[in-house]
Design goal:
With 249 residues, the protein is α/β, with parallel strands linked by helices. The chain has a single domain (5-242), classed as Rossmann fold (3-Layer(aba) Sandwich). Helices cover 44% and strands 17% of the residues. It has 7 helices and 7 strands, in the order E-H-E-H-E-H-E-H-E-H-E-H-H-E. The protein has helices spanning 14-25, 37-49, 64-77, 102-130, 151-170, 189-196, 217-229; strands at residues 5-9, 29-34, 53-58, 81-86, 133-138, 176-184, 238-242. It has a 7-stranded parallel beta sheet, with helices on both faces. The longest helix has 29 residues, at 102-130. NADP nicotinamide-adenine-dinucleotide phosphate is lined by residues 9-16, 33-36, 39, 59-62, 87-90, 111, 115, 138, 140, 183-186, 188-191.
C-alpha cells in the first residue's frame, strides 16, 4: 500500500487531521481536502516534515465543480485514489427542532449529504475501473439512533447510512468496498461548536457533557486506519466508537 493514494475530506482539523497524519505515517500519499487553506497547509507541512507525502487541496465539497477539479488534481499529481475517507461534516449547535434555523439545516444537509455524494460520485468510478478501493464513511451514533436536539443532523447521517447500505449491495464483488465508522462524542472543534455552544442542558444521553469526557480524535483515526490496513484480508464493514462507559454512582 506504500505510495498508494488516499483522499481525506475535512483534513484540516478535528478527526480528519489525525486520519491524514496516521495514513501518511503508514506510507499513503494523502490528498487533504477542506476549505481552509492555511490549516490544510499546516497539516501538509507536519506530514512532510515527518517524511510523508501529502497534497493540500482547498475544496468546498458542496461545490460539484470544485470537487471535479479537485479529483483531476489528485489524478494528475498523485494518481488514482485507492482509499476515500468521507469525513467532513458540519453540525449546528444543539437546538430544539421547533426553534431551529433553516439556514443552519441547509448547511448541514449541504456538507453532510451533498458533500459526501459529490466526492463519492467523483471517485468511486475510477476505483471500480481499477477493481480496487475502500471508501469509509464517517457516520455517527446519531446516524442509527434518532437523536433529539440533533434532529436534522441525525437525519443527514441516516441518509449516509442508507447510501452505504445500498452501495454495499450495488458494488459487491467489484473489488471496491465501503465501511462505516460511527463515533460518539469526540474532542474536536466540531464537538465544541455543536455541544458547548448549544442549548444548555439538552445534551442527549449518549453524548459526553464536556470535552474531557470525549473520545480522543486519535482513537477514531486509529479505527479508520485499522479498516484500511485490513482491506487486503478482510472487509470490516463498520466500527462503533463511543466513550468508555463509566460506573454511574
Ligand atoms: N466530534 C464528534 O463528537 C463526532 C461525533 C460523531 C460523529 N462525528 C463525525 O466525525 C466527522 C469529523 O468530525 P469532527 O468533529 O472532526 O469535525 P470538525 O472538527 O468540525 O472538522 C470538520 C472538518 O470538515 C471540514 N469541512 C467542513 N465543511 C466543509 C466543506 N464544505 N468542504 C470541505 N471541508 C469541509 C472542516 O474544514 P474547513 O472548515 O476548513 O472546511 C474540518 O476539516 C464528521 O463526519 C462528524 O459528523 C463527530
Amino acid at each position: 500500500m506504500v505510495g498508494e493514494v488516499a483522499v481525506v475530506s475535512g483534513a484540516s482539523y478535528g478527526i480528519g487531521r489525525h486520519i491524514s497524519k496516521q495514513l501518511a505515517a503508514k506510507g499513503w500519499h494523502v490528498a487533504l481536502l477542506a476549505r481552509g487553506l492555511a490549516q490544510l497547509t499546516q497539516v501538509q507541512e507536519e506530514i512532510t516534515q515527518a517524511g510523508g507525502v501529502a497534497l493540500a487541496l482547498q475544496c468546498d465539497i458542496t461545490d460539484r465543480n470544485a470537487v471535479r477539479a479537485c479529483k483531476q488534481r489528485i489524478e494528475d499529481d498523485l494518481g488514482t485514489p485507492t482509499v476515500l475517507i468521507n469525513n467532513a461534516a458540519y453540525v449546528a449547535p444543539l437546538h430544539k427542532f421547533a426553534e431551529g434555523n433553516p439556514e443552519e439545516w441547509e448547511k448541514m444537509i449541504s456538507v453532510n449529504v451533498w458533500g459526501t455524494l459529490n466526492l463519492t460520485r467523483e471517485i468511486l468510478p475510477s476505483m471500480l475501473e481499477k477493481k480496487r478501493g475502500k471508501i469509509i464513511f464517517m457516520s455517527s451514533k446519531a446516524g442509527v439512533v434518532p437523536t433529539p436536539y440533533l434532529a436534522v443532523h441525525s437525519g443527514t447521517k441516516h441518509m449516509v447510512e442508507g447510501l452505504v447500505g445500498a452501495l454495499i449491495q450495488e458494488i459487491a464483488g467489484s473489488g471496491v468496498s465501503v465501511s462505516l465508522v460511527r463515533p460518539g462524542g469526540v474532542a474536536t472543534p466540531g464537538y465544541t461548536h455543536a455541544v458547548e455552544s448549544g442549548d444548555g442542558g439538552s445534551v442527549p444521553d449518549w453524548i459526553p457533557g464536556n470535552f474531557d469526557e470525549c473520545i480522543k480524535p486519535e482513537t477514531v483515526a486509529e479505527a479508520v486506519l485499522f479498516i484500511v490496513e485490513q482491506m487486503e484480508h478482510a472487509d470490516i464493514s463498520e466500527i462503533n466508537v463511543t466513550a468508555n462507559t463509566k460506573i454511574k454512582e
